[in-house]
Please model this.
Amino acid sequence: MGSPEDRLTLGIESSCDETAAAVLRGGRELLSNIVSTQIPVHQKFGGVVPEIASRRHIVNVMPVIDEALRQASVRLPEISQVAVTYGPGLVGALLVGVAAAKALAFALDVPLLGVNHLEGHIFANFLSFPDLRPPFVALVVSGGHTALVRVVDYNRFQLMGQTRDDAAGEAFDKVARVMGLPYPGGPQIDRLAAEGNPDAIDFPRALLENGNYEFSFSGLKSAVLNYLNEQKMKRREVSKPDVAASFQKAVIEVLAAKALEAMRETGYSALVLAGGVASNSALECRLRKMADERRFAFYYPSPVLCTDNAAMIACRGYYQSLAGHFSGLRLNAVPGLGLSNLEA
Ligand code: KG4
Ligand code: ZN
Model:
């Protein structure tokens, strides 16, 4: 397969509402990164409709791969290996990418790499920061997951804790929805919160005791809904910016406190943020301040690499290939795949 630095990895991602493909040379040199989003299609339903997502992926997957190859100026026979998200995500959506990747790997007679989407989010940071090396603590905050991970090496992770119920992004989306804001709610709350008072309403912060790396956001979500209902019943005017800012502050405080505790426990010198919620401006600001005060390094991916993309999948796949972690053509979608301890 030639030297690892010359290896061309084709990445494919279709776990939710983005059809994406990317070409990566070696572990860090991104040659193309194509994302075809379905957000406008799902917006009128207030969330992702799984059946529609699968159908759109089927229509989009080959044109997106073709465009990724074209922009990279790489021909299909030059591809060394194919990396694809096989979970977690919507089963019908995942199956489209997995089927396309298996067909290409078989036709080209190259290795196939099944990638955990959440690990992919962490690896997006290696593309934004070419000098970043493990070990570090990763705070993964996406639409479906919230977790703290000790990244010991490229293929050695330990899950420190995750959410017991809702993910941070899910809470953002649900709160936005009841406030009448369009899907996806995270960026809307982020924008609205900038105009509000974060101390206007005292929403609850769950599981804040030391040494506990589990998260819970469903109580906070219910507290916001109850607050909105109560104000409505009392015919009181609600300041949406204040609700957004107070809710956002409650989420960020918990994320920051637990990330800090994880930094203390591991003694590591770098904190890495990953997942769609990593593009939240107030979260980034809070963690950066904390990192400056406590003198540790803080990384978060550029906005295009924060949300779902195939570049991060190709990157994760590349490092799996270095450890010989290939998948066979029997690879299947695993919708409930979580983050688990990985000992290379
Ligand atoms: O990682 P991602 O693209 O998809 C999953 O793997 O889930 O994350 C999507 C989530 C959505 O819940 C979206 O509302 C949230 O990331 N998000 C944000 C922001 N941008 C995206 N949440 C808060 N603030 C943002 N600026
Ligand atoms: Zn994601």
About this structure: Residues 16, 121, 142-144, 169, 172-173, 184-187, 190, 275-277, 279-280, 307-308 surround KG4 (ligand 1) (CB under 6 Å). DSSP finds eleven helices and ten strands in the chain. The longest strand covers residues 29-37.
